[in-house]
## 1
Amino acid sequence: MGSGFMGLEIGKRALMAQQGALDVIGHNVANVNTPGYSRQEAVLTPTEPSLTAAGYIGTGVAVTDIRRIRDAFIDLQVRTEMKKLGQYDMISTALEEVEVILNEPSDSGIRTALDQFWSSLQELNANPESDAVRKTVRERAVTLCVAITHTYRQLSDLQWDTDASIRAKVTEINTYASQIAELNSQITKAIAAGDHPNDLMDRRDLLLDKLSRIVDIRVTEDVAGWSRVTIGGVPLVEVQGASEIAVQQLPSGYAQIVWANSGLPVNLSSGEMMGHFEVRDNLVEQLKADLNALASSIISEVNAQHALGFDYHGQPGGAFFQGTDATNIAVDDAILNDVALIAASSTGLVGSGGNALAMAQLKQKLTMQSDPAMPPNATWDDFLRGIMARVGVDSEHATKMAENEESLITEIENRRQSVSGVSLDEEMTNMIRYQHAYAAAARLITTADEMLEVLINRTGITGR
Amino acid sequence: MRITTAAMARNLLRRLDTNNKRILEFQDQLSSGKAVSKPSDDPVAATKAFRLRTTISETARYKANLQEAMDWLTATEEALSKMVDVLQEAREMAVEASTSTLPAGSLDAIAAKIDQFQEHLVTLANSDHGGRFLFAGQNTLTSPFTAAGPVGVLDTGALMREISRGEMMKINITGEFLAGPNGILNILPDLAAKVRAGDSDAVSAMISTVEDGIDKVLSLESETGAKINRIQMSIDQMTESEVSLTKLLSETEDADMAKLIVDLSREEATYQAALAVGARLIQPTLVDFLR
């Protein structure tokens, strides 16, 4: 049978355990709004029983563990979807901007400029002698050139903006990686010492979530508490620490990302970074190539026809456009200075507008092809329309995928909240429980105290 | 499944956000009047709108071409009609001069009148429309005839206009009917000479030559008139086309205002309800009820 002091000890242990549990509840309540926080639970276990003649007697309770409630599988799911969201979000945003740049369907895009140029050539056919009409043709041609070069330049600007964003994101990745490595060493030291670094692990998981949106990472965690992060199979964070990603300048001036220690390119398959590359190197690059094809076709076809005609003075036509593609298409300087040089006539006589008519009819000519190996099967209008349709479909697709991913991630986040989130109602209820237990433990101590007092002060005193 | 405080707040925010996004979309469409303002709104409709816009622009241009052609042809018709009038009067003179009972003085007077008619014919042959000569072929800036005959080599080139896709029309009458051995301009000087000579038989024979000339000009006049009719029909067709294309474009691109306003009201009501419900549910926790 234990001594009376055992009661005191049990009471003390109870008080401390309930107090500890209340502290954990307090921590949960304080962090109800902290992003990335997982609720913690004090694990109360009975302490080692002592063996007596009557058998084992319990000796009270202690807080043996502060458990972090978190489902690693949900974390894995979140990271898998985050990288897809990052990618589609980036692409969708960029394509929306491309749609604004193209400015179709509207009355102020390249299509309108082309239509008005054609219309002015028709008018020239009807009035080849008129100086005013010739000036109109020149102005419409200039407008067309400006529309094309301006659009091209805006697309280039978009590429450079994306490039700048890529460089900024590299810094972000490196920052996150080094922070994760730092947390790794702190966490493993704490675990080795037997502590529960729950809040540190929360911080690390939050960083991993943020990182997973930017690049497609794989995370493996081991028992000792190390989180190893790899990108495309190459380690970013491991036991020795964090590797760095660096920017390598390509001959074009654009950035390529490589591993700082080996110089090998980083193997991406998803994430915001991938989205940026997709936009810069595929989507916008293709559009620029298409614009170039359109511009060079316009230049060569119009110039070829123009050379077959005669100008106001009966001289054979020279060049109408100068330049080679969408970067530099412009009306020839000679014509800018003197509209009489526009070769409207097909016979050399001033009243003939036949060549202007032939130039106008280039609008219906099949000048573009979708496959370079095949003969031309599209007019300039068809080609422009095709570009616009493609951008529209791609943009719609990216937006819908991004929306889908958002919904998916919200679902998964809800599940994560359900497991790891703090419910104030729950914490309040538990608080009441532990509070009652604390009060009862205090009662225990009072009772044990009174018993001891009886024993010490009032037992064995006789005849006083 | 545990529902946490944060989960309820997050859900409320997400629903409100979805609501707001829809309201914003409606607002965009109502203020722009367009259901398709960028290709990704509806790629198929956008493609259709693109093509419709081009076709409408082409139709407007063809209409302008037709109008311009009509003006030219009308001027030509007028000039030809006046030529007929002049030749008719010359014929009257020829008839009068063919009677053999006139004194020499009257014959001279008649010849002088015929000379006047010839001058008038030359003026008519040099008719112009806005500074461009009607019967000069493609040499439109140079007056084609003098009293002595054509200036240099008469040009017989055609002036073509595209009046609809791939369809060409020649709008000018070239000057062969005026110049050349059987040309209108060679009849009256010949007649005047014969009248002066007093050769009444020769003058009689010339009456039919003048009549042939009148017929030739009349047939050109009716050819021109027929072209004018054809053009008027085409203009009417183009106008109708413009109207239906514009209507089609509107159906493709424009927002249905009435439907949008109803949708917007409904969405606003939903938003209000979401706000009210959210306010009721996210506020009370157990803390309010514990002492």
## 2
Amino acid sequence: MQSVTPSSPEQQERKEIRFAHPSEEEFSHILDFYKIEWEYEPQTFPLAWDEEGNVTEAFTPDFYLRQQDLYVEITTLRQELVTKKNQKLRRLRELYPDIDIKLFYRRDFGRLLDKYGLSGERGGLIGQEALRKPYA
Amino acid sequence: MPDSDIVEVLFSEGQIQARIRELGAAISEDYAGRTPHLVGVLRGVVPFMADLVRTITIPLTLDFIAISRYGPSARTRGVVRFMKDLDEPIAGRHILFVEDVVDTGLTLNYILHTLQRRYPASLQVCTLLDRTIRRLVNDLPIAYSGFDLPDQFVVGYGLDYRQHYRNVPYVGILDPRIYLD
């Protein structure tokens, strides 16, 4: 099994990625650990257009897992604030039915942290502390 | 006492044992004449493996592996590693990989890819619990599945929180105050 050395091309590429949220960076570490190939925000999907054909709304999922052909969106918003995101996701699935996308809500990501023994880091990754963190 | 930390029993001891008998009967029929080699990952699978093999009525062999898990220190260590590998080669053998729970599928996917490179004659999975709602890896060869698991933090029957509760004879939902404190 190969390990990624600090000077390897993969590690260098990772250092250049600016994650928008600490939970996304944590998720990328999980994927790396299990040797799942991923891309960060590789594609933007237009969701609405004006009369002139200009894109007025779009959605860029956080991760694309190449081997699984699966997009993953992580949201750390509280449940009552995810309505807009749910609407976007619904529209995405209507317009692009061949796209496979999974949404990890705050609760789902929290459970993932619990599973990996990272419950103590919830605040820094999905709590108020994470919202205050200057990221990207 | 472990029981006082569990807020709800999801699958009772009786339910688990009844389902295991069904799984064992199906495996005995499907693998007749092939002497399956059952492989499980320490430590969570131990109760399930012990009970499962005793319901299988055909000759079989078994082995265990142990792997590192993602956690606070793993972020600096890189990738998952085999802490204990198989004791015997599996080339040409019919492998039934036994899991206590399949969740995101990340761990199982990595293990199966590793085992597949050792040229088994066949490779399938038997899991007691299957949490499909959190799956990130599709097309896992799960041929046998005991129960579908809801999105709850469960312990018991081998499943742990910080190595505790494995000896609880049923599967139950852990009180969130235990792991959120």
